[in-house]
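Example 3.2
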Amino acid sequence: MTSDAAPTREFHLGLTMSGAISAGAYTAGVFDFLIQALDEWERAKRGGIPGLDAAALPDHFLGIKVISGASAGAITGAIGAVALADEGRTPRLFPNGGIQCWLPKLYEAWVEKVQLCADAAGEVDFLSTGDLDGAWPKPDEDYFASSKIRQEQDKKGPPAMSLLNSRLLDAIAHDALKVAAVRAPRAYLSENLHLYFTLTNLRGVPYRLAFTGGDYHMLSHGDRAHFIVTGLGGWRTQSVFCDGDLGAGLAAAWLAPPPPPAPPASDAQIAAAVADAAAKRDAWKDFTICALASAAFPVGLSARHVFATTADYGVDAQGRFRRYPDEALADTPIIEPNWAAKGDFPFMTADGGTIDNDPFEYARFGVKADLKPRNDPDPASADRAVIMISPFAEPKPPLAQGMPAPDVVSVFRRLMPSLIDQARFKPGELALALKPDHASRYLIAPSRIEIARDAAGDRMLDETGREKELDARYAIASGLLGGFGGFVAREFRDHDFQLGRRNCQRFLQTYFALPGVNPLIAASSDAAKTAFRALALPQTDAAPHAATKAARVCLIPLVGSAQEEVAAPQWPRISQDAFDRLRPRIARRYDKTTTALIEANITNFVQYWAFRLLATSFPLIGAKRLALDFVDAAILSDLIRRDQIEGFADVPCLVETKDGATRVVLDRDRMRAILAAIVHPSNQPRSASMVLNDLKGDPAFVYQSVKDALDRLTQPDCAGRRYAIMRAPWRAWEEELYALAARPPRLGIVNAYRTVRQKILDGLAARFPGARARREESGAAP
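Structure, written as tokens:
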């Protein structure tokens, strides 16, 4: 292909992958199928698909020139780039046929290896304690700091860097970089493929703006890493923004082991070859470290130490400079940092998604033909677009009224989640991506369909006799625990990976299309336009634009294996045994982490042992039990709410019968929400009022419906089921208290007292019923 300025029928594509924690498995699945579809289209163009004439294909060209990612999106972009270079890995199939994954490196990293609790003993996982055993990792397995940063290794060993064992990510990165041979470039990838990873620079870059009334000083913590990878693609194209932006160059050929120097080779030649190979290997390692730095979720995962220089924020000899994706700043270095001294500038990083979780603008500017005007959104003339992959598509209600409480601890606990939520709030970008008549930006988000069922659990039919479909309340399995829940079980990540593949296929068939009047499509044959006509938009997505109402042709025609329907994955559930295995593993990790933190920060002998005993030893009042109860309840509550643990799928609905007609008052999803609210870190029974307070925001929940639901689950037909409810032997303010029968409240001294006290009060009430009645009439508290 020729340069961007030539009058060719090319469609320029950029990809943006949002931060998603464990839901990155979904993003990886989307990327996996997108590459499969493009590979199969290229194979068809070469006549490599039997029975398909290349002349019958749409003859426009589509190429990818920029990929931006934050957090999990950066990880997917980095491993995806390496996977695109690896010649030795071929698609994997399911045992019964069909494509399981097109790029095995992505599947292995996101589904098989990244796990909270490994299936086999001795495997590294997030809860293993190898990072706290006092030994520094081997240099080639250490991905904490860039290669140019010299690390001082304390004899005591490395400190506790995160609540989870981040060396698991180091091992995954190390394995991903193992490439035996590099494949030929793909025609649809840019010759200079640009990758952007967002970073949170904890050190901060200083700026000074001079005003007539004085100077304004500020620090910028929103940073990014820019890499230009050659050898992955063969598309000769240009990007005004990316080509003029400072970045680090990488060659795909550097991934494979270099050939030995041709004999006869001197010692100096051999030493030079070894040094050159090490430098190239380190360049790719630094690339991977930047991706890990973008995914360094605060406290949970280890921060990373990234090397930079003050020159990386200035202007180089070729006139390239640090560009900002903003119409006012993109074409000139208007503001430059106010350095006290120039030179090396290494900095510690945290999750890039904390500040910029959807780096859409880097991709949008990367595909621009000119820096000033916006990309043409008209379907009749659009020739470039950005696809944003965003795994979090589930509703997120605001906190209940009065929450958080005004105390310091409650406000502080809500601060970080608020900052993360705000980083994901991009109304301008998302609103346009959702419009079907806007052809310069698109969104792929999780969507899962399930069959509607009645109160008896039978499948419901629509007016045509077909099974009635509805959007599932929860689309991805990794959405629990704010996105960390996918690490709990491989089944969750595998579901999301396959759902990503399925959603991408449907997106390419339905949404990613242009009308026949668009010049890119118009020159294709009528047969090609007919054969690869896009599916009709859903009624809810009907667009007012005349060009969109016309027949649309897929921008990426699905051929070969990409044409075979990706099966809808079954909703995953873990067993109770699998859940029970988590607590002892979490307890061991807790013990090692708290001990390491206390040893590193407390030197006074008395204070040291006081903290050790309080944090890890006392079973009744210690912090350990409180922490474990909190984590245990948080995981189980979300698993129940989302129907991701066995035993809760068939919980009965709450129904009422009136005038011979039966009406569902609370469906199964809402019944599970009530059960989830019963599970509390205190492991104490809860009243209907307490449960209702946790369920504010859904008008279906009122006091009586919640009370009726709890009473319904105490009935004999629920006995022995995981969702069975028991009544506690004491009450609170005359309200009955409930608990899961499988998780009865601990007896303890306090609860024993409450039980005896309640029996005495009930005995007195039975003996003197008039006194109780007068008290209830007066409204006095018991």
